[in-house]
Structure formats: C-alpha cells, structure tokens
Amino acid sequence: MAPCMRLYSSISREIQALLVPDDRSHIYKKWIDSYSSQNFEEFAFQIEDMLDKLSICLTGEELEVIEKLYHQAMKLEADFFSTQPISQQTIVPLARVLDPAEADLRSTWNFLSTQYAEEFEHCMESIVGGRQAEKLDYEGLRNALEHVAEFEKRANTRVINSGVLKGLHLEDINRAGQRLILQEGCREFFQKIVTNDTLKAEFHILSYCWCGDFIRSAFSSGGVDELEVHSNELTYEESVTTGDIVRKVESPMEKLQTFNDILNECNKEGRRLTVYIGGAVGDLLCLLQADIGIVISSTPSLRRLGDQFGVSFVPLFSGLVKKQRELVEDGSCDWKGLSGILYTVTSWDEIHAFILGS
After folding, report:
1. pLDDT in tens, 29-84
2. pLDDT in tens, 139-168
C-alpha cells in the first residue's frame, strides 16, 4: 500500500499542476482530483510513517527484503499504468511513435469500444426513467433521442481524432466486408427478394457504419448488388483512407431524415407500402414511421426506450392473425405508420414467410 499511495499522490499532483483548471473533458479527471487532494496526501504520509516505525527494529537483511518488496510493488504499479489504453497519438515513448505496434492499435480500439459502451449506457440511463407513457409519445421519444444524437457524434469525433481509421486500403476493406458474417438468413432473404419479378420494390440499407464500401461488399459477395446503401463514408487518397469520415448518417434523426427522403422520392409515383427492419436504438424512429416496422435481434436499450415512450411490441405472428381477422370482418386491412405498434420476429425466416411466402 505504501508505494501505491505515494505513487498515486505524486503522479496526480504532477499532472494536476499542468492541467487547465476548467477543463473537464479528460476521462481521468475524477481520478486526478481524488489522488491529488490533501486528504489523500495525508493518508499516504500516515502509511509511510507507520512503515518507518515498523521498520526500526528490523535487521539489515530484513530491511533489504522490505526494500525489494517496495520496488516490486512500485514496478507493478508502473506496469499497470503502462497498460492503460491510449485514445490519441502521443509523443512518448519515442520508439512507439517511430514504429506503432499492432498491440497499440488494438489497445486504442478496445479503449474506444469500452468508452462507447459505458457512455452509451449513461446516455440511456439519463433518458429512461420516470413514468412510462400509456400510448406512443412520439415527440417525447424524438426529444430523448436528441441526447443519443449528441452522444453518437461525439463518439465519431473521438474515432476520427484517434487516427485508427487512417491508412486502411480499400481492397482490405472490401475483403473484410466480403467475410462479414450477417445474421442467419439475412443474405438469403435479400438474394431472393431482389430477384422477385412480381415484387415492385426498392431496397435501401440505412446504417451508422463509418464505411459504405464495407456494407456494399458484404452484400455484393452474395450476389446482392441492387441494395442502395445510405451511410457514412471514409475518405480516400489513392485508395488509402485519410482517417476522416464523411458524416452523413450519424444519429437517429439523420437516419429518419434519410428514410423520409427515400419515401418522398418513391411516393412521386404513387403511395407505396413501406417496411422497415431494424433492431437498434437508432432504428426506432424509422421503425415507427414505416407502415410496417419489424424488430429483429433487438437490443435491450431499444426495448427499454420503446417501453418508456409507449411503443407496443407485438409478435409478428399474433399481429398477422389480428390483421387477418380485420380483413375477413371489414374487408380491408390498413397498415399505417406512427400507430405505435412494432412487430417482433426471432429470425429472418419469419420475415421471409411474411413478405415472400414459402
């Protein structure tokens, strides 16, 4: 404990002296504030004083053992700090700057992923709570998702600033996309639906993905080239990424705007039935806006957010039974958006049977 307390106190005080007082952006602020405090310094001094008093009666040989243990503890603490992820480029150690190791890149990715997951959970906690709506509160949901939009844009900025997307070859990106494992039945569904001559439809993919080329190659490898991809794009110089992102679809609102633009273009030729399939928080507005919103492999966050704002999740099979009864009794079956009802499925086979039949 003695070397640990002294090291934490010394390092944090050195760092604290160099920080801008009002800067609250760095992730270690609470750590530094705590360990550079006067209270912590007093704790460190008390432990060292106790160690000194206990060592008075030790022999020279025993003191050597204590010294070795002290140095070993200090080394373990130094090793701990050196393994912490680094999310931005640094000037030290110089050897790493001159020859960035794959391990450093992996560490940065791990850090970005962990930070994204933690901040996303905090974001969700800030907007989910209180009394649940009894029916669809669409405006309340939109306002809540504004917080998600801000979070997603900050996360993308961190990715760009980290430099992890720089230096990627387009050929490697396409190869990675071709090897992407989609949900079981997804690729087969689109392979069949795009070749269905009796179904006059357009097919679009809306994604937060940083790279549209990655998505296009994932589907083209299965012979599906008819899908129009709407996503962010990486920038290239001679087929090598610069590290920047052309930001097109970063938030639920931008995804909804893209969806509405597609609908407006399609409806120039007459009203069309719209089906949206998704499972993430960013899909929620589009799922509700579509005539038929189908939720597959939904995240817990989507269900929590939907429940909070009055969205009804109905298994597709039971929903179809109800619609069939309406058709028999009333002679019509009306699908319309913003009904507050989303249909849930467990596999792409259900979607296939619903849209294409056997």
Report:
1. 888 888 888 888 888 888 888 888 888 888 888 888 888 888 888 888 877 777 66
2. 999 999 999 999 999 999 999 998 899 999
The predicted-structure confidence for 165-218, as pLDDT tens digits, reads as follows: 999 999 999 999 998 889 999 999 999 998 888 888 889 999 999 999 999 999
| Spatial CB neighbours of 355, under 8 Å, sequence gap ≥ 6 | 193, 275
Q: How far apart are CA 207 and CA 249, in angstroms?
A: 7
Distance CA 159, CA 244 (A): 9
Reading the block at residue 27, the tokens are 């992730």
* Whole-angstrom distance, CA of residue 255 vs CA of residue 208: 8
Within 10 angstroms of residue 267's Cβ, the number of other Cβ atoms is 11
Question: Is 123 tagged catalytic?
Answer: no
Indicate whether 104 pLDDT > 80.
no
Neighbours of 73 (CB within 10 A): 15
* Cβ proximity of 215 and 231 under 8 Å: yes
> What does the DSSP 8-state code read for residue 196?
-
Q: How many CA atoms are closer than 13 Å to the CA of 100, on its beta-carbon side?
A: 15
Provide the b/e sequence for 174-206 (b: ≥16 CB within 10 Å): beebeeeeeeeebbebbeebbeeeeeeeeeebb
Are 273 and 335 a contacting pair, CB within 8 Å? yes
Least confident of 72-76, 82-86, 94-98, 307-311: 94-98
pLDDT band of residue 101 (cuts 50, 70, 90) is: low
Which pLDDT belongs to residue 103?
Answer: 62
Contact call for residues 201 and 263 (beta carbons, < 8 A): no
Give Cα 354 to chain centroid, integer Å: 30
Closest CA to 337 of 281, 260, 278, 233: 260
77 is catalytic: yes
Domains, the chain, with CATH or none: 2-82 (no CATH), 103-355 (3.40.50.1000)
The catalytically annotated residue of 48, 77, 119, 188 is 77
Structure tokens at 185: 């039945």
CA 209 – CA 215 distance, rounded (Å):
8
